[in-house]
Specification:
mainly alpha
Length: about 200
Amino acid sequence: MTTEAVSDRVLTIPNLVSFLRLAAIPVFWWLLLGVDNVTAATILFAFIATTDWIDGYLARRLNQVSKLGQALDPVADRLMIASAVIAGLIAEVVPQQIGIVLIVREVYMAAVTLFVLTRTRGTLEVRKLGKWATFLVYSSIGWFYMAAIPFLEAILTPLAWTAGLVGLALYWVTAFQYTGDALGRVRELESTSSLEES
């Protein structure tokens, strides 16, 4: 197995791509809520989402993996997803039944993750079911945006609802699985500490 050397460089091509993706987020908000152009906002959202892989690919291809890039990529992803959900709720593009339940789940998981981090200084292993749930939920968000374009509404609205509801159900199943993982990890650490003390 080969591992890429991680540098402290800031000015790299992959980092530039990540910065451009971050810079596009306020433009997305302006298009959706400032000028009420759902079609343009949807196109920009699709562009940011589909270019998610480019910065990582370039970093590996050009041997420009950096600490900054490793931090920027997930930040850009999370900010875009959060923007799509929150702005979508405000603009009534994303249904409340999907958006609010999704936000509650993300807040819950943030609390679980923080609990594990503070108690064990570690992280939870990602479950395969969680990856599928994430794919379904965030695909549904994209499809709701695309369904706001009149000629796509009839085709994509049922697809968006189906993916969203199934994805959210799986999302909450994995949330409780992660909670079990978190409690197990803490009990295991506490048990190990007790044995070492004795």
